[in-house]
Backbone:
């Protein structure tokens, strides 16, 4: 099984690509779990899950204080308290998981806020245990991360076997990608892929790839700017379910195949035997 964390600056297309890949791999027959790690979760929308019309009801698991306390024995903001380091997690997907198209299952986990909020160790421990448990329940775990670099400090990101950094043409996005990649490398995340998104005529993907290469990242794919995404934004229909989205669908399939090739261990499949370790 593979855990893939999708990262990058705000608005570059992390959620769109994470959702598109989750659906594409599911169509290829893989058991896919998608995790929304953004404190403002909207992955359900891009995945096409059966909760349309009630986005306000999606409370990230990490924000459910009672639940964290019930499982760990300590409230998420408590500092200096003793808490369970092996909370029960094997029923969480069943309790909070949402069914989405193509059989993708979604769990809205959210992000742990640490800035000045006291010790968030119980929530962090629960999230890490959960990600580790879920990785045994699926062939592919796709994590849609919060924008920026902050999530790299968390065990959930560090347990990823591959990190995909999305970058759009533009200095800020490229620099954020560079920082993410550098930190991910220092943390020992085994594979870091670069994916360029929203490429327009005149943009030079080579320049972006060159900058990312300085941080040890191989750029594996580039998506052009596609107006079908605007239709998705307007209608709420996931791009791969739109007739206008045929090109995007084909590109997502291509990207999925490139990822498979990169993740392949000889004689194995994407569901390689490698298990996430407990780096933290
Ligand atoms: N290839 C593309 N062509 C055109 N528009 C795109 C493309 N990819 C994504 N977009 C658009 O860019 C916007 C941001 O996409 P998305 O929400 O996936 O980004 P994000 O990185 O997850 O953002 P956030 O940081 O807010 O979570 C959306 O309007 C989406 O439709
Ligand atoms: Mg997003």
Residues:
């Amino acid at each position: 099984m593979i855990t893939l964390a999708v990262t990058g600056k705000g608005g570059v297309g992390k959620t769109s690509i994470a959702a598109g890949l989750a659906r594409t791999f599911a169509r290829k027959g893989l058991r896919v779990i998608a995790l929304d790690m953004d404190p403002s979760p909207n992955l359900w929308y891009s995945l096409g899950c059966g909760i349309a019309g009630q986005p306000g009801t999606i409370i990230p698991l990490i924000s459910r204080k009672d639940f964290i306390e019930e499982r760990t024995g300590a409230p998420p903001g408590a500092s200096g308290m003793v808490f369970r380091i092996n909370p029960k997690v094997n029923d969480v997907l069943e309790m909070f998981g949402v069914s989405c198209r193509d059989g993708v299952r979604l769990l809205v986990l959210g992000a742990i806020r640490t800035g000045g909020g006291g010790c968030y160790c119980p929530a962090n421990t629960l999230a890490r245990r959960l990600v580790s448990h879920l990785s045994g329940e699926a062939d592919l775990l796709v994590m849609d991360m919060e924008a920026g670099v902050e999530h790299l400090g968390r065990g959930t990101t560090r347990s990823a076997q591959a990190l995909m950094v999305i970058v759009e043409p533009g200095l800020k996005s490229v620099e954020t990608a560079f920082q993410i990649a550098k930190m991910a490398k220092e943390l020992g995340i085994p594979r870091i892929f670069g994916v360029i998104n929203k490429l327009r005529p005149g943009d030079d993907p080579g320049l972006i790839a060159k900058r990312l290469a300085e941080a040890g990242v191989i750029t594996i794919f580039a998506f052009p700017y596609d107006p079908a995404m605007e239709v998705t934004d307007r209608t709420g229909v996931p791009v791969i379910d739109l007739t206008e989205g045929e090109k995007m669908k084909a590109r997502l399939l291509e990207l999925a195949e490139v990822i498979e090739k990169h993740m392949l261990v000889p004689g194995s499949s994407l569901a390689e035997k490698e298990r996430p370790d407990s780096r933290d």
Q: What stands out?
A: The beta strands are 2-8, 32-36, 98-99, 105-108, 140-144, 162-167, 191-199, 218-224. The chain has ten helices and eight strands. The chain has one domain: 2-263.
